[in-house]
Amino acid sequence: MATMSATSIFFSAIAIMLLSTTIAAESSASGGGKPKVTNFMVEACKNASMKNKIYDPNPITQEFCVSTLMLDNRSAEAKDLHSLIHIAIDILKGQVAAANGNVKQMLQDTKNGTATMRALSYCMVDYDRMVSILNICDTMIKEYHGRKGGANDGLLSSELPACVERVDKPFIDCWLGLLAMEAKKLLDENFAVGMSVTLNFCLASTI
Ligand SMILES: *[C@@H]1O[C@H](CO)[C@@H](O)[C@H](O)[C@H]1NC(C)=O
Ligand SMILES: *[C@@H]1O[C@H](CO)[C@@H](O)[C@H](O)[C@H]1NC(C)=O
Ligand SMILES: *[C@@H]1O[C@H](CO)[C@@H](O)[C@H](O)[C@H]1NC(C)=O
């Protein structure tokens, strides 16, 4: 129950911030030599945008997907979904690392023994946990070559989105802690991470 209501608060916050995140993604993408958009990226993103959860009030759009993938110039070279998802996971891991760096920075300026200090410490552990889980998903995507039949014959395609979904718990835990301390910048970064998690889930669901 607690998680359910927390999730709905989170999703209502998404609507307000979606626009600014998209703008941020676009401006940083155009920073270092504009990566090109390929038909493959557009098609993969179109398919991904059809994999949104039915109850998600702020679904991933094809445009958001493309602008996020453009953050990494390797996306233009991707010829199959495996490479594209690997890149999307890398982008997400980079966003988590950046967000975590700023949590760590704030922790250094926070007095010991305070509730803020504890929330930040938990959040760092949550972000680390997200990266550990994403590393497992990344290994899965590298090893996945389609299932041929037998029960022990590699992984089911549904296992990949299920792996990505596991980051939801630490993500929401960190978000709740940051929400309580009203740390605007850290919350904005946390929000961007959340959108990227959803994108990874949708892309992984297209395999
Ligand atoms: C997108 O979905 C269509 C229809 O299922 C499929 O034929 C196509 O290969 C998919 N494209 C990508 C890039 O995943
Ligand atoms: C991608 O960008 C990096 C620097 O960000 C650059 O070193 C590399 O050559 C670029 N690769 C392509 C294929 O454009
Ligand atoms: C805060 O606690 C840590 C761990 O106990 C300690 O190493 C550090 O010196 C303390 N910092 C301050 C400013 O008291």
Task: Briefly summarize what is shown.
This protein is mainly α and 207 residues long. The protein is built from 8 helices and no strands.
Describe the structure.
The protein is 71% helix and 0% strand. The protein contains eight helices and no strands. It has a single domain (2-204), classed as Invertase/pectin methylesterase inhibitor family protein (Butyryl-CoA Dehydrogenase, subunit A, domain 3, Up-down Bundle). α5 (115-143) runs antiparallel to α7 and α7 (168-181) packs antiparallel against α8. The longest helix has 29 residues, at 115-143. The protein has helices at 2-29, 39-49, 62-69, 81-108, 115-143, 159-165, 168-181, 184-204. It has 207 residues and is mainly α. Bound molecules: 2-acetamido-2-deoxy-beta-D-glucopyranose (3 copies). Residues 40, 43-44, 47, 81, 206 line the site of one 2-acetamido-2-deoxy-beta-D-glucopyranose.
